Input
Amino acid sequence: MEEEAADGKRAAEERPCVSHRRGRSRRQRRAGRTVQRFWDARNGKLFQQLGTHFESPRSWLAAIEEHRAVLVAIRKHDAKAARQAMQHHMDKAHGTLQRKLRRGQARLIEFRETTGKIPASRQADGR
Output
């Protein structure tokens, strides 16, 4: 996975196995469904398009390390550490997305102000 990220390739992905077997608590099943929804969204068109703008080998390697921290905590059955590691990952991802969206918005405003035009990619959807 690290090699693919370093080469700028998206990691080979398989749908995670989320167990809905009996014996699992309602909370565990709900968490499993949430993970499954995130995974499915990750492979959707919008997420893929965002990825072309915001992902890089460096960002993938950082995400892999963050995921590794979550997995280590889960394997140790340390719920608190897993929760903290996942929160850290989500906070970083959110912050990165916000920064890049603001940067993109600033570039769009600058383009409009200097040219008086709307980029061709924006004309089709009317933004």
